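Hi W.,

Here's what went into the run:
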Amino acid sequence: MTITLKQLAKKYDESSQPVLKDVSVQINDGEFFVIVGPSGCGKSTLLRMIAGLTSITAGQLTINGQLANDMPPKDRALSMVFQSYALFPFMTVAENVGFGLKSRKLPAAEIENRVKDALAMVNLTEFRLRKPKALSGGQRQRVALARAIASDAKICLMDEPLSNLDAQLRAKMRIELKQLQRNLGLTVIYVTHDQVEAMTMADRVLVLNDRKVQQVDTPVNLYQHPQNAFVAQFFGTPQINLLSADVLGNELVVDSTLHLKLNGNLNVDNKVLVGIRPSDIQIEIGPKNANARVTTVSYLGDQSVISAVLNDTQTIRILADSTISVVVDDLIKITAIEGFDVFDAHSKEFITRQKGDLQHARITSQAY
Amino acid sequence: MEMNRPVTSETNHGNLKRWGQYALLLVLTVIVLGPFLLGLWTSVMPTAEISKGALWSTHISLDNYITAITTTPILRYLLNSLVISTVTMLFQVLLCSMSAYAFVFLKFRYRKQLFMVFLITMMLPFEAEVIPNFSTVRNMGLLNHYAAMIIPFLTAAFGTFMLRQTFMQMPVELKEAADIEGLSHWQFYSQLAVPYAKISLMTLAAYSFLSSWNQYLWPMLTTFSDNFRPVQDGLRQLQGQESFNNWGMIQASAAIVVIPTLIILFIGQHYFKAGLNEGAVK
Amino acid sequence: MLESLPKHTNPEEPSKELVPVGLNSATEWRKDRLYVALFLGPSLLILSVFVFWPMLKTMYLSLFLTDNFGHASVFVGFSNYLNLFKNPAYLSSLGATFVYVIAVSILTIILGMVLAVVAQQHLKGIRFFRTLFSSTMGISVSVAAIFWLFAFNPSVGVFAQISQALHLPEINWLADPHFALLAIIMTTVWMNLGFTFLILFGALQQLPSSLFEAAEIAGVSKTAQFFKISLPLISPTLFFVLIVTLIEAFKSFGLIDLMTVGGPNNATNLLVYRVYQDAFLNGNYGLASTESVILTAIIAAITLIQFKLLGKRVSY
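Here's what came out:
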């Protein structure tokens, strides 16, 4: 069950701008494929184009080698789980799970069996005669899952299925969903705005922003090798620092006290963005040779996120061990940066990644 | 609010206030129900005493009801109204829900414009169109027949408008889920949209039944015999005849007409309240 | 569809490869066409035959003199309209209708509001009273007419008996041109009360209690709470009730036919009753059509205001 998208585009009659353009990707059999992006980026539209709920303006969609652009949704052999679960309030759990099978005119015994199996799989057997309103949010979510399972389709589309659950339940369901997908050998296309969800569940992720595909890659690669500043910023908590810097020979000048050494010359001679993960920064506390002042400290348990202002007002986030004792207005000194990405300041595209170390960061200090 | 007050010194004051509130309720009830209670009361009094202006009698009986049922076609009128209102109601619910469905779930050219056309019909009072409509039903040969009182009201712009609002509140995802399962429009309409809009449909049913039941001008123009005359015009007929001064019997006839609708209303009210609660919970 | 896309989407690839497919709007429309006919056809047919066609016909007839069968005979342009507005009898009908409509609307809303506020109280058995207050909704026009005809009866009616007992001048309500319209107004308001009460009561019930708790803490009096909080918040509902009452009042016919037959001395000869008289009793279909058009214009104007304000409310 491979799904191939070839330069898919979507444009509504009312607007002159396409909402999506040039989306090309191949989704492999049995893959957990996540489409992620901020709200309004067109990820739900893309999912609905694959489902056949929204028409495709241009490009090709093939499902299992068959051109599917014009195929009615029901012939695409897929199931879908919706954000609001799309449960019918007047039907029992069992009726909701079986409603699609019934409309496909399957024999009653077959429907009965499939509903039973699906409900067992999501641990809802004893709730089969309840109405959705008598269930908790998590249980409703499972009913929606059971409906997808019962349909027996090998492709399952999910549109933010966990976003209406509380944080704890969401974490639990992520694991269950992933297990279910593996056990059933489903090809899942999963839409979310939550980068943690994308990172923890996906085999591969398609990052969508501003109507375009930003990057398609494994979670590890998205984090370690972001192709542009957007992707770099989208993944990772706390967020990556994107500091603007001037290129000066083989040095990047972030500010008067923070210079980063480059391995070889860059082909740009204007401003760039330097991406530094908060965990890649080491600091020393104390007024001696300090080059930043702490503005906030957020305690996260064994780690703390420190925000500090460099002397030319750029803010930098640092992830530090909680054993470090630091309070607001403390002066600190950035002593080392373990690695950084350089992005074009204008196009935001990736230019180079530099393995930074003590030698590569030249830190002058006299600001404070 | 009373419950939050200290119980000690103000208890007397609270009691007094409560009695005052009950007195006010009672006065308002008498004003609101006065004419109705008076009618109901006189319907069990002998006409001879009513004519003397008596408001109290010891000769209470159901004689007036028996007279009304045996000597007038009041039951036939009721049956006529029941037939007309029931058929009108069923068709209005069916046709309004179908056209509302079309305006929400079907895509077609000029959908907006056509909906405007429906809205415009809400501005045109039927009372101002009786002259050509009378010619139309006469030409169709429907005068003095149930059909004349049913066919013009088989659908209603108001009902379409109301149900369209309900269907529009249905989450789009329900329709998408149905599309993925391959339900046709007819299946989605009959199996999912209609049950979903149950409460609105019941409300429209009650509304259309009552409006049909209360029709007066149109049946008056189009019916000439007791076989088809609905109850509103039937009561006028009774009143206009020589029995006009037989107050007891007239009141009894009115009571016969009003009691069924009141019962339906009270039962319906209970149902609607339950329905509204159900709607609020989900 | 492809034409509408910018050509430069993908300069490298030949545009042949971009298959211009998808459920584009045109095919979606075609697919639904049968359903449109099935779902919309019957309603459209009924409305065309019994609403649109008669309206056009009425407008057409209003420009003609008609024969006894209601066929247009002589084209007279707008002279039917001009004559009507010069006719004192019609103008007095118009005046009486406005008095009636305004009085009915104001009294209905005030009384409905009083009932709704009183029914808000938390007392034992209040549900029973609420049901009673809404009960006139189930009383149809002819039944109401019988009850009130009896009450207004000059010899046996309660009003006559009360004024007798109090030695007040006796009023023959329905036969006195000064009081007949008032009698019709009272009866109409009474009939309207149940529905109005139910709607206003529902609106008051739905107001969030936190607002009143906040006002209570701030020491705002109950009266001020009603005028400063409740009334503004339910104003959309009040407006809805007002429009419905206005429109229904303009269309009044049954009570008049049952209680006064337009009299005495045309005091209760309201617009719809006049249409009926002129068309079906006097056989003057052209004139009656003109009156119908005027009635329609009034009601359409009120409905338009409603749509306008409704649209505004929905949009913010």
